[in-house]
Amino acid sequence: MLGLGIIGWIIIGGLAGWVASMIMKTNAQMGILMNIVVGIVGGLVGGFILALFGVDVEGGGLIFSFVTCLAGACLLIWVVGLVRGRGSRV
């Protein structure tokens, strides 16, 4: 995802954060800015976890970047829900 630049991070992060918030049923609580932040941070989390398992996250392409951001954003929303005491959303 590094080759996309900041605009690519914002677009993919925003889309991934939005889809993740719909999957995790937190869409009503999150605005567009929060969706972007959750998607970008989710991409970093997802990329870090995949790198721990030896997966080449840089050479994956656009779809792989989106799926990585989506999975990381869902994980992030779930963890934040646990910390805030809302329990599991899965």
UniProtKB/TrEMBL annotation:
Compartments, as annotated in UniProt: Cell membrane
Entry keyword Transmembrane helix: yes
Taxonomic placement: Bacteria, Bacillati, Actinomycetota, Actinomycetes, Mycobacteriales
Record keywords, A-Z: Cell membrane, Membrane, Transmembrane, Transmembrane helix
Membrane topology classification: Multi-pass membrane protein
Coiled coil: none
Family under the similarity heading: Belongs to the UPF0410 family.
One Pfam assignment: Transgly_assoc
Residues spanning the membrane: 6-24, 36-55, 61-83
Membrane is among the record's keywords: yes
GO cellular component, one term: plasma membrane
Record protein name field: GlsB/YeaQ/YmgE family stress response membrane protein
